[in-house]
Amino acid sequence: MKSRGHYQASRLKSGARRRDPINNPCNEPVRSTIETRRLILRPFESDDVEAAFAWFGDPIVMRFTPTGPDTSIEQTKARLAHYQEHQTEHGFSRWIVLDRHLGRPIGDSGLLALQEYGWIDLGFRLAQPYRGQGLATEAARAWVRAAFDDFHIDRLIAFVHPENVVSIRVLEKLGFHAERRDTIMGMNAIVFSLGANDGETDSRFRRRMSLDWTRGNLQEGLRCFHSGAFFEAHEHWESVWLAAQEPEKTFLQGLIQVAASFHHFQRGNYAGTISLLRSALRRLDAYPEAFAGVAVAPLRATIRLWLGALETPSRSPLPPLPQLQIDSSGSLSSNQFSG
What we know:
Hyaluronidase domain-like, three-stranded antiparallel beta sheet
């Protein structure tokens, strides 16, 4: 095994660096879970072995994995033990992916420090029934954000068999660039990389947004929202939503649901308020802390406060009604907020 000094030197040489030491002092995890609109990701536990063997032992799922499928549940048990050791040492690892609504294990995704190559590797795979729904992209995107924002990793690497077209598409969606062909762990592979400062870390969010809150129905809806005319705000924003393209369309739908929820609250329909706020939060959770000129993080925090208040028997005290925080220009892109 390479010494720690040799490993750090190889990482510096490869460019796959962390901005702090690779080991987490005190072994305290930076994150214990990652949640997206449809998924929950958490470290593997011993009780996950049987569920995980369903995909680790599947020859189709493991077709493009250098090691091939696990041939026994004991092999999967050893695999998960390795992931748990890696988690203890580094604070991240391959984590299990759960269906957010059912709590059902559906795959794994995460980061591994490959010492023999000197890089941090991004991986993802799903059990067969859950493919083709964008879930791999959703899990991988969440890990890219965690890698750069929470674990302070400078560069991620992913290697893919040339015939694994689906995984190549996922990486391309996330802004990864093909660097070279190579043999990795005995497998013919294309090596992809993505740096924290590449300028377009996530093509879904890093381009300039087209929402202008200084005029038209967006501005009028904002005025209505802040004055408590939530039904009218919903109406104005819906006219913009009808013509919008993704990712703005789903974002606007979340804002519309927030407005509609407080219209229901004003009418005394608390069950409807809770239902719409939950739905809005699921949509808004997929977006960065700031998006298209809107500060999303404080809005999500306010929604959670309201859900907490409404879901307690006393329903008091209630938080203030939400206010959308808009950048003064009204149309800044998300990366200008996140720095």
